[in-house]
C-alpha cells in the first residue's frame, strides 16, 4: 500500500521511539523510509538593555546544526538498515518545521507521513499547538500519528 514513508525526527527520546516503530511498520508494509530533520535557522540576536550576546557566528551555528542533522539521520538510517529496511535521509534549514515536513514529503514523493504526537490536550494543546497538529491540518499526504 505505502511505498515511501516520511519520518520526521529531532533526535529526542519520543522521536527515537517513533523511528523504531516506523521501521517495524515499513518492514511489514515492504516500504522504504525517508527520515527527515528540520534544522533550526540562526536565531536573530536581540540587542538592548540586559540582552545576552551570543558569541556563535551564523557559520558556526550552521555547521553545528548540519552536524547534528547528519548524526540524527545516520542513527535512524543505521537502525533501519539493521532491520533490513531501505532508508535515506533529508534535511533542510527552516523556521517553520511543519511546512518543511510537508515539503520534504512532497519532494521525496512520500505517500505517508509517520509522526509522533506529544500528547498535549485541552488548553495547552490549543495554545501551544504542535508540529503534528499543523502537519495534520495542512498536508494533502496522509499522516499516521503514533502515540
Automatic annotation (TrEMBL):
Pfam families: Usp
Family per similarity comment: Belongs to the universal stress protein A family.
Name used for this protein in its record: Universal stress protein
Source organism of the structure: Zoogloea oleivorans
Domain UspA: 1-147
InterPro entries xrefs: Rossmann-like_a/b/a_fold, Universal_stress_UspA, UspA
